[in-house]
């Protein structure tokens, strides 16, 4: 069974971001791109300013049961997303109930609150990155190694929270880049696992050592 993350943030080149989002959505819904506009489980909201009113509309639609049983999918394309709308979207994503997937397309990650950003898989398109070549090469080497060698590489991180979180951010970037280059359910699943573990790491009292060890074996 294919595994997809519940929410994606796509930033940078808007047209490339939309193409990538549609590719993933077609796989989720098992539908051809040309048929999405008539799919009852697909919703595309495009607006210059995504407001609390828009967020409430999304929440209302997300609460409904999927017509075709594969989940409801929402694309939100906006250059500006208000803080109130970001908070409302976060609550919608955290609510139990019907299966829903969210794709937020915006020029910059700065357009949404960090609390919402932390719940989303971030895919970047034609934008400069803040990760050095040295950091990304370390992560790529980590992914090529067997579990025992991975544990040796990250053993020093567990005692330093900031370094661990920075490692997670760079790992997300590399996994997301791999996902864009060669879309597959396996890569989508790896990205989902990482994001869940990163959110666990943000909790008070979380064992960074256990989280790192888990990632060494499952990625």
UniProtKB/TrEMBL annotation:
Q: Offer one Pfam family short name for this entry.
A: DNA_pol3_delta2
Q: Which SUPFAM superfamilies match?
A: P-loop containing nucleoside triphosphate hydrolases
Name of the protein described by the UniProt record: DNA polymerase III subunit delta
Q: Which organism is it from?
A: Candidatus Tagabacteria bacterium CG09_land_8_20_14_0_10_41_14
